[in-house]
Protein: DUF2937 domain-containing protein
Organism: Paraglaciecola arctica BSs20135
Amino acid sequence: MIKFCIEYLRLILFCSGLLIGIQVPAVVDQYEKRIDAHLTEALQILAGFQQTADRYFNGSVQNLVKHYESSDDPVFNNDARNIRYISDRVASLQAEAQTLQQAALWRVLHVITAADKQIIQQTMEQYSYMILIDPQALIWGVICGFLIAILLEGILHLLGYCLLCFTPHKHRKNT
């Protein structure tokens, strides 16, 4: 009966790991879509300033910002900070979008280790669990299922071994 339960425990661990692993590419996908949405919005906000830069500063938004900064008008100075922020945000989001064009493993590692903190937080807060049925998701699922099952079973065996080793035994007396 115990062996029967252990086999089901292995199956449950594997299936749990499989379901967790399938979420990995789904999180990356939702993060990537959120980056794209933020980039599209930032480009739209920057578009009017870019037109002014194209018309008067050979397309250089940085020169437009310098022009605004050199003005004695506090409104222009304030706008310079806003334009610089938008321009920097566009550059940051473009770099993030470019990074997410790498191979699947590198995208996952990037999202885990170096994702935009604000956007990954938004992604996780609004994440909707899903089961992607594509080769990448299935591979992640099987690998995670296998690793979680092996890891937890190893821990359980280690605990069982420790319990056997440290349980006091009654010694027989040889007569």
Observations:
- Residues 2-166 form one domain.
- Residues 53 and 60 are 5 Å apart (CA to CA).
- Helices lie at 2-56, 61-69, 74-99, 104-114, 117-125, 135-166.
- DSSP finds six helices and no strands in the chain.
